[in-house]
Amino acid sequence: MQRILIVEDSKMVQQVLRHLVSQYLSVPVDFAASLRESAGLIKNNKYTLALVDLNLPDASNGEVATLTLRCGIPTLVLTGSIDEFKRQQMLEMGVVDYVLKENRDSYTYAVKQLAQLLGNQGTKVLVADDSQTSRTMMRQNLERLLYDVEEAEDGEQAYEKLLADESIKLLLTDYAMPKKDGFELVKSIRSKRGRDSLGIIGISGSGSQSLSAKFIKHGANDFLTKPFAPEEFHCRVMMTMEQLNLIETIKDSANKDYLTGLYNRRYFYQAAEQKVAQQSVLSLAVIDIDHFKQINDTYGHQAGDEVLSFLSNKMASQFDDALMARLGGEEFAILFSDEDQDAAFEKLDELRFSLSNIQVEAAGQFISFSISAGVAQLQQDEELTDLINRADVALYDAKGGGRNQVVIHQ
Question: Which residues are catalytic?
């Protein structure tokens, strides 16, 4: 479980940080005001990140940062002043970043950095460079940012890894590599993976001013010239990932239902048509909450919304490998890949049975509800609209037969 330690002795600054934490973070955060207090908390808790003030009443020379780093906690530093000696000292210690305590914007930046670092955890990054020294240096910098790092020693190896693992979200590639150089690598992978799924930063030790333009024209998001300062590396990586996350957020807003988090009707039809064209064994279910208008009329629309969210979460946890959507109102669709109608029926009936035997706490009240579902299996040369229509007919039969049941289309 992710957890953050914030060390700050000023009560006023602590108050500002607590407010910002409530806005930007959704993980447990512990506050300490001294080195001694910090040591006690670290002894009893495991922390993902730390944000620490360098100057404390019982530790005026950055001892708290030494403590957190020694305990393996990636650390951001708050400092009232910075000179070249202190900057170099902090970088040699291995801090993730430092933030000058200038105004409220400084604290906002620091807390946003914590949020972004938490989001980095588990994200895969690939470093492609024929120099072992360069790869090691970049790996160390990236691991401080909580990324999972993989390496490739030439462009061909990097290309194969990127094709094999679409969970890799960022590529850092050198220009001069054997077998396939950085330009060729970027050009090749961009034909397979767009800017919405992979960020790319080109790197070169050459002083040529045209290299950065060439990299970006070939499809890179950004460019770094060796040797680069750790702060520049940090900023370029974080900005590229921020762009990727922003694109993901925009896509989610366009493709997902705002209330349930499931896909919306438009996206479902697009994705389902592709699956129908590619697979021969598919089953589709259309699900409806029984007497949903009564729930809204009796308990209120907030309770109805919470029932919809509960059902969506239940489906997402029970059918995590299926394509699901809220078609509208209280109606949902599930497309089961590689499942015949009998297997789909068994899964849906298990869901129906579990729902009919529990009460949901919604808007401070306990509500019972049931679902009806219709299931149809894809037939040879059948189109998606016909498959959905047959599942709808089965749903109509389920409702006509008394509700709280699953019916297979005959």
Answer: 330
